[in-house]
TrEMBL record:
It comes from Cuspidothrix issatschenkoi CHARLIE-1. The keyword Nuclease applies. This is Endoribonuclease YbeY. InterPro entries: MetalPrtase_cat_dom_sf_prd, YbeY, YbeY_CS. Its cofactor is Zn(2+). Keywords: Cytoplasm, Endonuclease, Hydrolase, Metal-binding, Nuclease, Ribosome biogenesis, rRNA processing, Zinc. SUPFAM superfamilies: Metalloproteases ('zincins'), catalytic domain (SSF55486). GO terms for biological process: rRNA processing. Belongs to the endoribonuclease YbeY family. It is found in: Cytoplasm. Gene3D superfamilies: Metalloproteases ('zincins'), catalytic domain. Binds 1 zinc ion. GO terms for molecular function: metalloendopeptidase activity; RNA endonuclease activity; zinc ion binding. Single strand-specific metallo-endoribonuclease involved in late-stage 70S ribosome quality control and in maturation of the 3' terminus of the 16S rRNA.
Amino acid sequence: MPLQVELYLEDCVDDSSAIAINISDNYPIPGETWENWFQQWLEILQEYLPTAPSYEISLRLTNDTEMQTLNSQYRQQDKPTDVLAFASLEADLPQSEKMLASMPLYLGDVVVSIDTAQRQAQQQEHSLSTELAWLTAHGLLHLLGWDHPDEESLMEMLTQQVALLKEIGINIDLDL
């Protein structure tokens, strides 16, 4: 039976007020596609998942201004970054066996800067969709406990990202 995934997709916020992104112009990836991708990725990463009847993930596509605020607040780095991940599995939340058996397990939040993704896509000479998938896969791995404090673990994580993107039909050659 396939894993059940509920994705909460949030759109970009401007400092002055909430502004929805024009989906046809700036969301090269529809919400349904994101859900399918997360479904496929979690199937591949099942060994890293705690057992649950279903999983929830929040994906927020935002701008550099908001990303800089978040990066400053949570990582004490006053600059925008490409992706942030806020893993709920790291929190010691009280959960009973009954809760674990009946409720979706919230894995956490992945936040991606569309502004930075666009620049990186141009630098890498691939599409914005590819870059957004790449960054989101990276964030998902962080939600599941992956990290890259050294070169060896970074290479393992990048190799896994390549495999995740290949699963959804995106081929990236990193010369690993």
